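Thread: quick sanity check before group meeting

JM: Hey all, I'm pulling together slides for Thursday and realized we never actually wrote out the predicted structure for the chain we discussed last week. Dropping the sequence here so it's in one place. If anyone has concerns about the input, flag it before I start.
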Amino acid sequence: MRSLILLVTLSIGLSTAFAQTLVDSTCKYYFTITDQLRQGDTLDAKVWNKLMKDKSIQMYLNDQGVDRDYAERYRRTMQVVYMPRNEAVLQSRLKDSTKYWLTYILYQYKKNEAGMRAYLTKLEKNPTNYFNDCYRYTYATLPKSAQKRATNQIYSVIPIHYDAHAENNYIICSLLCAYLNDKNQYGVLGGHELHHILRPRIDYTKITPDDENVVALLEVTLNEGSADLIDKKYMTNKDTVLLPFQRYFNTFFEEGKHLLPQIDSLLQLSAKGSTFTVRQFLKGTVFTGGHVPGTYMAHYIEKNQLKSQLVAHINDPFYFYLLYNEAARKDSSKPYVFSKASVAYITKLRKKYSGALSSH
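JM (edit): ok, ran it. Output follows.
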């Protein structure tokens, strides 16, 4: 069998004033692999593992918490999806996308490859325009003092999975996710992730251990809720450019209806000394990171013309909950309103940790 040709690293950079770099070398490597698989070659484990050891891919996989056998399962599934001799097996698996989820995702990569190649070519030709669009969306949810350019920023597009992740000076987007989201609304996915990079945060070193979990809950809700104002309005059931599982808004919103009463109950118990983990506060949803309550709450804040207040206090997770409650009380559709006990508790914490809020 022919060995796969390996591509050298390709980086496309902006001017040094922006200090931002687009890196898509792993995608080019991936396309070399898929070209060979279509010709009937198998995927050598050493070739695949070299791709999986890329720094951005490793950062993403570590964040996902996958087991050590994940790379091997992925390699074998690649062979099922792309090798012509496995077409019958592929078609059989595609009848049950829930059971064969990885097969389904890789089939979407295969199905959209021509479009994704053209998408990367477009990004490489003018990354400045792309990042300008991302920043435009980001700045709409940040106060003037925080509207800066990220320094030493790597925007890495990786050819696995279907997600986006921000960590340190990296924004890591799965190629399929970036391609479909930008086809749907150019720049909003990058804008969401840049918001995570630029938004001023509470200083956790000033939070006492007894309050850490509650403050973390409030912070992750604000962190995703404020960023979700950028992109989730473009990710509804009407946005058919996206795959069904990417139309997050409706799911986040519906689950939020049921999650807020639970959070309220646990906050009331926390005020009396009980301790709960963030996961316990968010129990009942598979979506982590605060998306479910955050999307729901941010929606009503914006709907009731309170977004400017949110932006002005974008560093304050306590204020986010209090502002949501104000919006909920005003809204004619009567969304959930937090109890007086929870509001009093959050207000008390806000006063206690006023010195932990960055001055952005």
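AS: nice. Residues 248-271 form the longest helix (24 residues). The longest strand covers residues 153-158.
JM: adding both to the slides.
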